[in-house]
Amino acid sequence: MIVSLKDILNFDLKGKVIVFETDTVYGIGCLLHDIQSVKRIYEIKNREAKKPMAILCANIDQVKPLVNDFDLGEAYAKKYWPGALTLIYPKSKVVDDTITSGQNTVGIRIPASLTAQTILKHFGPMVVTSLNLSNEPAVLLYRDALKFEDVVDYIVEGNDLTGVASTVFDPIQKRTLRQGEIQIL
């Protein structure tokens, strides 16, 4: 079902998978603690279970309970968030192994998108990954996002995007795992 940003805020997202624009690419996501929906996202994308997903948050207050040692990446967070940088942190017990593929770390990002921010402020942290089939390019155009209407519960009306996927950076090992728009020196 295609819905407006205003309308999605009135829905209960428990057990639901949604599509919405971020500041980089279209994302497919669900509530943080909705592990059945996390599994659905893996199925929809034909994503290997060994590939972890990220968590998007609206602000640093939402991030801190999800990670151990926020201080490890705090300087990067303050410099680049909100924005197209995913930081890898040691995960807290709040984050289920299904999200991280059993790894003891988790990717966290605060997007600079009004749509994403509105959804995340209202519903809290969400498990989100790029909207695409695994190993295919991420969806940038709204009309391409609509092709997923039959396999997700809600698609939030959006715009065509021009972004690239976020940079993924591990502040512990000081290395870039995926190069995106942001350059970390």
Spell out the CATH superfamily: DHBP synthase
Query: Topology as H/E string?
Result: EHEEHEHHEHEHEHEEE
Average pLDDT figure: 96
Approximately how much beta-strand content do the residues carry? 15-25%
> How many structural domains are formed by the residues?
1
What gap, in angstroms, lies between the N and C termini?
A: 43 Å
What is the CATH topology classification name?
Answer: DHBP synthase
Biggest sheet descriptor: 10 strands, mixed
Cα radius of gyration in angstroms? 15 Å
CATH architecture: Alpha-Beta Complex
User: What structural class do the secondary elements suggest?
Assistant: alpha/beta
Please provide the count of β strands: 10
**Shape verdict:** globular
- Strand order in the sheet with the most strands: 1-8-2-3-7-4-6-5-9-10
Can you give the helix content as a percent range? 10-25%
Q: How many helical stretches?
A: 7
CATH C-level class: Alpha Beta
Low-confidence stretches: none
Characterization of the model:
By secondary structure, this protein is of the alpha/beta class. It has a single domain, classed as DHBP synthase (Alpha-Beta Complex), CATH 3.90.870.10. The protein is 24% helix and 23% strand. It contains seven helices and ten strands. It has a ten-stranded mixed beta sheet with strand order 1-8-2-3-7-4-6-5-9-10, with helices on both faces. The N and C termini lie far apart (43 Å).
